[in-house]
Design brief:
Blueprint lengths: L20 H4 L2 H8 L16 H9 L19 H11 L20 H9 L19 H11 L18 H9 L15 H11 L12 H9 L1
Helix pairs in contact: 3-8, 4-5, 6-7
C-alpha cells in the first residue's frame, strides 16, 4: 500500500546516487499519482465524477467492462450498443421481430433491437435500416430514453442554447438527465455518459417490479 513514508528513492536507504537528480526530483509527483484513491476500474478512479454511475452500470452488467479491467469511459457507443444497454436496463425483455435488413438474425444485439422496435423505443435510420454500427448521438439517446419512459410531457422553458425546442429535451433538463445549458446533441455518445444517463434513470431501490404502485411511481418520477 503506497504511503508518503514508503515511496522513496534508493538514496533514502543507502549510500547511492540512484536515482539521478532529475528523477529524484520527481519523487513527490510519483507520490501524488500513487496515492490517488483507486476506483471501480483501472482507468476510472473514484475522483472521476462518473465513477459512481460507471461502477453501478458495470456491477449490474448493463455496460460491462472490457476483459483487461478497463471501462474506457471515453469510448464511442454505437446504436447497437445503446439498444443492448437499454434492453439490459429494462430487464432484458424479449421481442418478436423488426424490419431492418442490416440486423442479422444471429447478431448479439438482435434481440435488443427486436424488443426496442416492438416497444416503440428504438427508431431506425430508415424504414428498413437500423444502422447498428453507426455512432449513437447524444440527441438520439435522449430521444430514446424519453420514448422508453412513454414520452412524458414536461412544460418548462427550453434550457439548451445549442438545440431547438423539443419535448424530449425539456424533459431531460427538468428530470436532471442532462445538466447545463448545452446539449451537444450531434456529439457521439460515450460509454461514461451512457452509464450516467442510465444511472440517473435507475428505479427506486424500494419500489420493486411487483410493487402495486410501481407504474404510478415511475410515471410521477418521469413527469
Amino acid at each position: 500500500t503506497p504511503t508518503r513514508a514508503n515511496i522513496m528513492g534508493h538514496r533514502d536507504i543507502g549510500q547511492t546516487s540512484c536515482p539521478g537528480d532529475a528523477l529524484y526530483a520527481r519523487i513527490r509527483a510519483v507520490e501524488d499519482v500513487a496515492l490517488v484513491a483507486p476506483g471501480p476500474y483501472i482507468d476510472v478512479p473514484w475522483t472521476n465524477w462518473q465513477a459512481r454511475a460507471i461502477n453501478w452500470a458495470g456491477h449490474h452488467r448493463i455496460i460491462p467492462p472490457y476483459g483487461d479491467g478497463r471501462f474506457r469511459p471515453r469510448g464511442d457507443a454505437t446504436r447497437a450498443d445503446a439498444a443492448v444497454w437499454l434492453c439490459r436496463f429494462a430487464g432484458s425483455p424479449s421481442g418478436a421481430s423488426e424490419p431492418y435488413t442490416d440486423v442479422a438474425d444471429n447478431a448479439p444485439y438482435t434481440e435488443a433491437v427486436q424488443w426496442g422496435y416492438g416497444a416503440g423505443v428504438l427508431r431506425g435510420i430508415s424504414a428498413t435500416r437500423f444502422g447498428p454500427g453507426r455512432d449513437m448521438t447524444r440527441q438520439a439517446v435522449v430521444d430514446m430514453l424519453w420514448r422508453y419512459l412513454e414520452e412524458p410531457a414536461v412544460a418548462v422553458p427550453h434550457p439548451f442554447t445549442d438545440a431547438a425546442p423539443r419535448p424530449s429535451l425539456d424533459w431531460a433538463a427538468e428530470f436532471g438527465l442532462v445538466g447545463g445549458t448545452t446539449l451537444r446533441g450531434a456529439d457521439t455518445l460515450d460509454r461514461g455518459t451512457a452509464a450516467v444517463f442510465l444511472y440517473r434513470l435507475r428505479p427506486f431501490t424500494d419500489v420493486g417490479l411487483n410493487t402495486v404502485n410501481r407504474a404510478a411511481v415511475d410515471w410521477a418520477r418521469a413527469h
